[in-house]
């Protein structure tokens, strides 16, 4: 295997011409520059510990910056130095190739290991998952020895990232059966899986486990539990947990706020909102959405203006929420102000926002402004065509719409009402 690697990896000439990749403009040497200097030092022996550490450091640098070409040259140095059997260096090589997307090179290096090392297996499993090879990761996971918390957690993360919630939960159950103690990352992933599949009893059992393993002090874990209670519509449990949290971050506040809003408890949400120490755009957007959903457009618009006064700019979700609400209530004045903000912020180039603006003007009976927005916008968006066609239909302007809108727009239309429009006018 080593011989094949020697043929597949270009050898490194130690001339300055071939080491241009270490030319960083910095007073402090990078790990690559340090390795170069160390290798060319007449005082250094290639089995020296400093040299081995320099190799590991340089490989880590290549992994971080995805410098695979430089990493391959370091691989050549390792082969020449006879250090491939060094476990730390070998694992660093596997990690470098995996992070750079060279999974076949990582596997070749992994296969050259004399035995299955748990750390090497963890790195290889992570590499498979990172590069979308979940089946290979699972196969290696099943045969690897001495699985630890990192092994189980890495495999669970792979499943959750690919929406394989049941498989992630099964791995967690195997982990508990094996007596391996989970960490905060493990619990965060299993809670995320149960959010999709579980109910209130699973949530309470997980909460009990979190307390048992003394992880309830981790804000990441508590916030995910809080989210799970809110998803299960158990706001009483959510509030109890929230009140007991020793530490809260902005995500914790926003999760609890969103739980109240989704339940229609806008007054409780507003009370909580006023207590948030450092509100962000999500906090404001959640509160605004609560008012919009209940038809409180005036309160929503007041919140919006207060947010701008605090120096926080809206995001695209908030913009769509507000202008859709103004379209439902035909509040043309407030909608015009939001449209002005959209243009200033550059959101008018987003296809879904453009379609929302067209829909807003059409809903307010201003089909002329809807057409103008369509003309100045990007005309290739199906959603914009749909909004314009629906606007003509809603305003009873069938013939005018037929004269303006070409046949090919109907052929691309995805809404049945647009199809009905053309059948009606045929």
TrEMBL record:
Pfam families, per the entry: PPR (PF01535), PPR_2 (PF13041)
Protein name: Pentatricopeptide repeat-containing protein
PPR repeat locations: 117-151, 249-279, 280-314
Domain of life: Eukaryota
Gene Ontology MF annotations: RNA binding
Residue ranges of the TM segments: none
Keyword Protein biosynthesis carried by entry: no
């Amino acid at each position: 295997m080593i011989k094949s690697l020697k043929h597949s990896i270009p050898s490194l000439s130690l001339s300055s011409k071939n080491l241009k990749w270490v030319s960083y403009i910095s007073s402090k040497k990078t790990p690559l520059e340090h390795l170069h200097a160390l290798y060319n030092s007449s005082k250094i022996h290639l089995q020296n510990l400093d040299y081995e550490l320099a190799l590991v450091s340089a490989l880590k640098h290549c992994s971080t910056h995805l410098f695979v070409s430089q990493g391959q040259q370091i691989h050549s140095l390792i082969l020449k130095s006879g250090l491939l059997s060094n476990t730390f260096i070998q694992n660093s090589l596997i990690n470098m190739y995996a992070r750079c997307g060279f999974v076949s090179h990582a596997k070749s290096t992994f296969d050259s290991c004399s035995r299955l090392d748990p750390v090497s297996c963890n790195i290889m499993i992570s590499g498979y998952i990172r590069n979308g090879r979940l089946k290979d990761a699972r196969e290696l996971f099943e045969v690897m020895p001495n699985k630890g918390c990192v092994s189980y957690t890495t495999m669970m993360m792979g499943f959750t990232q690919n929406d394989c919630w049941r498989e992630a939960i099964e791995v967690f159950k195997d982990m508990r059966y094996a007596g391996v103690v989970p960490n905060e990352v493990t619990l965060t992933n299993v809670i995320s899986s149960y959010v999709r599949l579980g109910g209130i009893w699973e949530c309470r059992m997980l909460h009990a486990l979190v307390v048992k393993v003394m992880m309830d002090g981790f804000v990441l874990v508590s916030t995910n539990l809080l989210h799970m209670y809110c998803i299960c519509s158990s706001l009483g449990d959510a509030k109890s947990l929230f009140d007991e949290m020793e530490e809260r971050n902005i995500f914790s506040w926003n999760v609890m706020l969103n739980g109240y809003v989704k339940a229609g408890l806008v007054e409780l949400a507003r009370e909580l909102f006023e207590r948030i120490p450092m509100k962000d755009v999500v906090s404001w957007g959640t509160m605004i959405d609560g008012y919009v959903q209940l038809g409180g457009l005036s309160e929503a618009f007041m919140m919006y203006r207060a947010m701008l006064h605090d120096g926080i700019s809206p995001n695209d979700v908030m913009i769509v929420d507000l202008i859709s609400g103004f379209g439902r209530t035909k509040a043309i004045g407030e909608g015009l102000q939001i449209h002005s903000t959209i243009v200033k912020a550059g959101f008018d180039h987003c296809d879904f926002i453009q379609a929302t603006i067209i829909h807003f003007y059409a809903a307010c009976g201003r089909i002329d402004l809807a057409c103008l927005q369509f003309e100045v916008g990007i005309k290739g968006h199906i959603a914009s065509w749909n909004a314009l066609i629906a606007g003509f239909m809603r305003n009873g302007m069938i013939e005018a719409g037929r004269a303006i809108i070409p046949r090919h727009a109907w052929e691309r239309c995805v809404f049945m009402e647009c199809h009905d429009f053309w059948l009606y006018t045929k």
